[in-house]
């Protein structure tokens, strides 16, 4: 087991143990476990947090994206523009509605979809642009929204990694027509199991999504459309309500830790450190460095008891699941370069300065540099 794990929930969860136990007890004693007051309360709180009119709690982040696309009428024959470097769930949501994902390369500096590449990918079949706020940094949403408006397209944000991030002071998850987010345990706002939500300012879309998530039913046993069982459960909603109040402080800690890494690892070997767009904020769901010596560095850190992860080792166009798209190695060179060189360092609320120093010391040692920062 790593001395310094890639992710450690203990500092967060120990501090809120009593509140989480009360939340559990309240739901347990209520004897109401699906679609009750805890879900309604969390939806209201998260909508207020995200500066949107509606939050619709659902089963997970993938289902959130799926329902957003479904409610917008995206179907077979349509195309959805997605970044070429993202987690597979972004593409799966497009496939679930029968549409085709069309990949667009990212900005090599921010790793987010490059708006200058979007227009050339638009065809008469394009219906949606789906930007992903990757690793916790907001995409260049002004440019994306402008392109969407020009071409009459919808926007669905994949906000699974960026709770609380902003572009020009506007929150991610509040730009698009309907946006999906994830509360998977490892996310900045994480449940104790699978959970997700759709955010929107559109009353009609919100109502469609509420119906779709619940068997296509607004009134019990009256099914208006073919729907799904993709509901957020009461227990997870209660836990999320507790955690939501701590998210700003946890975000501040993530940003502080990221700054420590950035200050300490500057000009070390061939390391490429995270770059934040001047109009964006970064909530550091992940702190991702890049180096041509990635595999050797990861091995070195593992041997020194430091956990790391690769997000993501195989870009979507090279996954077996998407061979039908007809892409080959070399088709998305930037995504492939990121996949071959990226490494995520430990970053979580409560990680000690000592542990950050140990990570830095080990990286310095790998590159043959004396540890002078700490």
What does this entry look like structurally?
There is one protein chain. With 374 residues, the chain is α/β, with parallel strands linked by helices. Helices cover 37% and strands 13% of the residues. It contains twelve helices and 13 strands. The chain has a four-stranded parallel beta sheet with strand order 3-2-4-5, sandwiched between helices. β2 (79-83), α5 (88-96) and β3 form a beta-alpha-beta unit. α4 packs parallel to α5. The mean pLDDT is 97.
How do the helices and strands line up, and which of them pair or pack?
Layout: H1 10-15, H2 17-30, H3 37-49, E1 54-58, H4 61-71, E2 79-83, H5 88-96, E3 100-104, E4 126-129, H6 141-151, E5 154-155, E6 166-167, E7 170-171, E8 179-182, E9 196-200, H7 203-213, E10 217-219, E11 222-223, H8 234-244, H9 247-264, E12 287-290, H10 294-303, H11 333-341, E13 342-345, H12 353-366
Features:
37% helix; alpha/beta; three-stranded antiparallel β-sheet; 374 residues
- Series of secondary-structure elements, N-terminal to C-terminal: HHHEHEHEEHEEEEEHEEHHEHHEH
Q: Classify the oligomer.
A: single chain
Estimate what percentage of residues fall within beta strands: 5-15%
Number of helices: 12
- Could you give the order of strands across the largest sheet? 3-2-4-5
Low-confidence runs (pLDDT<50, min 5 residues)? Answer: none
Silhouette: globular
């Amino acid at each position: 087991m790593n001395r310094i794990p890639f992710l450690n929930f203990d500092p967060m969860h120990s501090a809120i143990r009593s509140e989480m136990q009360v939340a559990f007890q309240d739901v347990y004693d209520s004897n109401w476990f699906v679609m009750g007051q805890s879900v309604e309360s969390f939806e209201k709180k998260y909508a207020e947090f995200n500066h949107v009119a509606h939050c619709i709690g659902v089963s997970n982040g993938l289902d959130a994206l799926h329902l957003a696309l479904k409610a917008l009428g995206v179907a077979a024959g349509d195309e959805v523009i997605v970044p070429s470097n993202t987690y597979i769930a972004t593409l799966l949501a497009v496939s679930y509605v029968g549409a085709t994902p069309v990949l667009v390369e990212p900005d090599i500096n921010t790793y987010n979809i490059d708006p200058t590449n979007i227009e050339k990918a638009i065809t008469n079949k394009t219906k949606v642009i789906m930007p992903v706020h990757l690793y916790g940094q907001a995409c260049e949403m002004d440019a994306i929204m402008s392109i969407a408006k020009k071409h009459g397209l919808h926007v669905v944000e994949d906000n699974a990694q960026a709770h609380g991030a902003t572009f020009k002071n506007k929150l991610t998850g509040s730009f698009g027509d309907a946006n999906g987010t994830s509360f998977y345990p490892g996310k900045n706002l994480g449940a104790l199991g699978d959970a997700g939500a759709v955010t929107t300012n559109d009353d009609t879309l919100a109502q469609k999504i509420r119906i779709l998530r619940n068997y296509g039913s607004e009134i019990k046993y009256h099914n208006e459309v073919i729907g799904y069982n993709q509901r957020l459960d009461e227990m997870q909603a209660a836990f999320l309500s507790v955690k939501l109040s701590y998210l700003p402080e946890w975000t501040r800690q993530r940003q502080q830790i990221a700054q420590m890494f950035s200050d300490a690892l500057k000009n070390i070997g061939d390391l490429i450190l995270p770059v934040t767009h001047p109009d964006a904020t970064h909530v550091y769901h992940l702190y991702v460095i890049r180096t041509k010596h990635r595999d050797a560095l990861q091995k070195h850190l593992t041997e020194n008891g430091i956990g790391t992860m690769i997000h993501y080792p195989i870009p979507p166009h090279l996954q077996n699941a998407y061979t039908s798209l007809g892409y080959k190695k070399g088709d998305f060179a930037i995504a492939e370069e990121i996949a071959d060189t990226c490494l995520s360092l430990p970053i979580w609320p409560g990680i000690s300065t000592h542990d950050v120093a140990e990570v830095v010391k080990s990286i310095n040692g790998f590159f043959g540099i004396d540890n002078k920062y700490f």
